[in-house]
Amino acid sequence: MNLEDLRRDYLMGGLDEKDLAANPIAQFELWLQQAIELQLKDPTAMTVATVDASGQPSQRIVLLKHVDDAGFVFFTNYGSRKARELAGNHKISLHFPWHDIERQVKVCGVAEKISAVESAKYFLSRPKESQLAAWASHQSHPVSTRQILMQQVARMKEKFAHGDIPAPDFWGGFRVAPHEIEFWQGGANRLHDRFSYRRTGEHWVIDRLAP
């Protein structure tokens, strides 16, 4: 396998500053809506990068569940590796890889837990099977066999056989408040268009970045 020969050119069009929204959240929402309308697979999937106490970065893919001017929201088990690392270091990076339309978005910011009320509201909107899985899984911790995991799911199913399943106190959301958002559009001959929004006080400054 010769990886050096694996490449393609990016020819779907460029990106000009005059076409950008003044607010990066508005620009992100436009791109996300276009990705959804084009029926990209998992358009809300994003890589979440955190750092542990030794400085070791770690990444995983989660789904974006809400975005507004306050930031980007995702949900997780508060005992998971990502949550434990965020407890020690609130700095975080998100990455949206929309390969099919030759676009990427990178977000840098800080993550804070959302309120228990907000988390419970979303939890109650999830399918029952997903609710049971949240109760059954000690996310990121070792489990010897899948059978044990399924047995735990069965116990939770029996426990919550009647009525609504409450949100666990060890599960909830994080909101990522961004201070930098970069928009990347592929260009011919690797001359990609990159624009970085940086927060300065209450305002956003836009810079074109060299590819």
From TrEMBL:
Q: Name one Pfam family in it.
A: PNPOx_N
Stated EC number for the protein is 1.4.3.5
Q: Which reaction does it catalyse?
A: pyridoxamine 5'-phosphate + O2 + H2O = pyridoxal 5'-phosphate + H2O2 + NH4(+); pyridoxine 5'-phosphate + O2 = pyridoxal 5'-phosphate + H2O2
Residue ranges constituting the Pyridoxine 5'-phosphate oxidase dimerisation C-terminal domain according to the UniProt record? 171-211
The UniProt record lists the Pyridoxamine 5'-phosphate oxidase N-terminal domain at 33-157
Positions contributing to substrate binding: K65, Y122, R126, S130, R190, L191, H192
Co-factor requirement: FMN
The entry's keywords: Flavoprotein, FMN, Oxidoreductase, Pyridoxine biosynthesis
MF (Gene Ontology): pyridoxamine phosphate oxidase activity
Domain of life here?
Answer: Bacteria
Residues recorded as binding FMN, renumbered to this chain, are 60-65, 75-76, 81-82, 104, 139-140, 184, 194
Which pathway does this chain act in?
Cofactor metabolism; pyridoxal 5'-phosphate salvage; pyridoxal 5'-phosphate from pyridoxamine 5'-phosphate: step 1/1; Cofactor metabolism; pyridoxal 5'-phosphate salvage; pyridoxal 5'-phosphate from pyridoxine 5'-phosphate: step 1/1
Q: Which residues form a coiled coil?
A: none
Q: How is the cofactor bound?
A: Binds 1 FMN per subunit.
Description of how the protein assembles with itself and partners: Homodimer.
> Cross-referenced NCBIfam families, in alphabetical order?
pdxH, PRK05679.1
Q: What does this protein do?
A: Catalyzes the oxidation of either pyridoxine 5'-phosphate (PNP) or pyridoxamine 5'-phosphate (PMP) into pyridoxal 5'-phosphate (PLP).
Task: Tell me which family the UniProt entry assigns to this protein.
Answer: Belongs to the pyridoxamine 5'-phosphate oxidase family.
Q: What is this protein called?
A: Pyridoxine/pyridoxamine 5'-phosphate oxidase
Gene label: pdxH
